[in-house]
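Researcher: Here's the sequence for the chain we discussed earlier.
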Amino acid sequence: MNVIETTNLHKTYEGAVPVKAVNGVSLQIEAGEFTAIVGPSGSGKTTLLNIIGGLDRPTEGEVIVGGQDISKLSNNQLIDFRLHNIGFVFQAYNLIPVLTARENVEFVMLLQKRSRAEREARSQALLEAVGLGDRMDNRPTKMSGGQQQRVAVARALAPKPKFVLADEPTANLDSHSTANLLDIMANLNRQEGITFVFSTHDQRVIDRARRVITLEDGVVVSDIRREENPVPEA
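Model: Thanks. This is the structure I predict for it:
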């Protein structure tokens, strides 16, 4: 079953010289995939990820998520759709500094109007799943970059999304933290069937992906599916 489907997707940024960031991309991503979208700087991979996630709108084409064309939604409808269907992990973590790890994970569920009991139980379970059961009451300033990014992964999973979009999630992490984070996401993918789509330059992420989509100048030039666990876990 496809969780994401794009058809003839275009994104042009107007200016003195118009820039075609995405140029006719059609692809399908199935439930349970662990996919990396790669390419050089300026290839359009972050723009494509932002359009799939409803953070940007295409100039032309369709983005179908869970059977719904999100390119046709109003701004308010998009906000609500993202809240209930898509998890995001960003390069800069984007945690709320005055909140603890648990409160950061709970926040999106608070917006969903879930009960306090459910928020507390799920945030605890997710933080334990990413190895931070002993750090739940720490604020981001008291955590390493790798720990903050693991909180961001737990927060992305909190709303029970259809899929998780991760934009350069390892860019600010050292090798040990990167390996640890990728192990966690790969385990969540295999054990719980969570779909992950990465935009990345990081060869360590590319090596772990089971599908690698390469963009150049906004065009898909390669789409390779690989066997399970192409690189052994550390």
